[in-house]
Amino acid sequence: MRTNPNIVITGTPGVGKTTHAELLARNAGLKHLSINQIVKDEKFHEGWDDELQTWIVDEDKLLDHLEILVAPGGCILDWHACDLFPKRWVDLVVVIRCDSTTLYDRLTARGYKGKKLEENMDAEIMEVLLDEAKEAYDEEIVVELKSDEAEDVEANVERIEKWIEMWKKDREGEEDEEEQ
Ligand code: ADP
C-alpha cells in the first residue's frame, strides 16, 4: 500500500506543468518525474519526429522503468499525455489549463512554430488532454486547474497539498478499519 499518492500533472505543452510539479515536489516532499527528461536521458525513444519536432517514445521501455519508481508512491508524473499510465498507479490527475492567447505567447517564446504550434494550440482549445484524462481515469480523480497568472500556481499547489492531506487521512482511516 502506498503511503503517499502518485499524482499525474498533465496538459498541453506550455500550460505550466513543470512550474506546478516543481513547486508541489518542493512543498509536499514528492518526487518530480519529468517524463520528457526521462525519455531523453534514458533514450526511451525510437528516433526524432522532424515534422512535430518531438521524440517518438518507446512506451514499453518507459513504462517498465516508471513502474519501479512509482511503486512506493509519492511521485509526480509530469507529461503532456496521461492515458498510458495504468490506472492502478494513479491517485490524482491534475489537468492544467491556460487561456489560448497566453498559451500562444508562451509557445512562440519557446520557439514553437508551424505544425507544432498549430497542433498544440488546437489541442488546448479542444480540451484534448482533459477529455483524455476523463476517459482514462475515474472522473472523480480528475481535476482541472487554470494557470494563467503567477498567483494561480501557488493557489493550485496549495489546493493539491490539501488534497494530499485528505488522501492520507482517508488511508489511515481505512487501515484502522482493517486492523479492527
Ligand atoms: P509545461 O511544463 O506545461 O510545458 P512550463 O511550466 O514549462 O509549462 O511553463 C511554460 C512557461 O510559462 C514558463 O516560462 C513558465 O514560467 C510560464 N508559466 C507557467 N505557468 C504560469 C503562470 N501561472 N503564470 C505565469 N507564467 C506561467
TrEMBL record:
Q: Write one Gene Ontology MF term.
A: ATP hydrolysis activity
Q: Where is the segment annotated NMPbind?
A: 34-57
List the GO terms this entry assigns under cellular component, sorted alphabetically: cytoplasm; nucleus
Q: What is its EC number?
A: 2.7.4.3
Q: Does the keyword 4Fe-4S apply?
A: no
Q: Which residues bind ATP?
A: 14, 16-19, 110
Q: Name one GO biological process term.
A: rRNA processing
One matching Pfam family is AAA_18
**Which subcellular locations apply to this protein?**
Cytoplasm; Nucleus
Class of this enzyme: transferase
Instruction: Report the superkingdom from the record.
Output: Eukaryota
Q: LID: where is this region?
A: 109-119
- Which reactions does this protein catalyse? ATP + H2O = ADP + phosphate + H(+); AMP + ATP = 2 ADP
Query: Is Cytoplasm given among the entry's keywords?
Result: yes
This protein's UniProt keywords: ATP-binding, Cytoplasm, Hydrolase, Kinase, Nucleotide-binding, Nucleus, Ribosome biogenesis, rRNA processing, Transferase
- Tell me the subunit arrangement: Interacts with small ribosomal subunit protein uS11. Not a structural component of 43S pre-ribosomes, but transiently interacts with them by binding to uS11.
Report the HAMAP family cross-referenced here.
Answer: Adenylate_kinase_AK6
Query: Which PANTHER family does the record match to this protein?
Result: ADENYLATE KINASE ISOENZYME 6 (PTHR12595:SF0), POS9-ACTIVATING FACTOR FAP7-RELATED (PTHR12595)
What is the stated purpose of this protein?
A: Broad-specificity nucleoside monophosphate (NMP) kinase that catalyzes the reversible transfer of the terminal phosphate group between nucleoside triphosphates and monophosphates. Has also ATPase activity. Involved in the late cytoplasmic maturation steps of the 40S ribosomal particles, specifically 18S rRNA maturation. While NMP activity is not required for ribosome maturation, ATPase activity is. Associates transiently with small ribosomal subunit protein uS11. ATP hydrolysis breaks the interaction with uS11.
State the family it belongs to. Belongs to the adenylate kinase family. AK6 subfamily.
Q: What is this protein called?
A: Adenylate kinase isoenzyme 6 homolog
Which organism was this protein described from? Lepidopterella palustris CBS 459.81
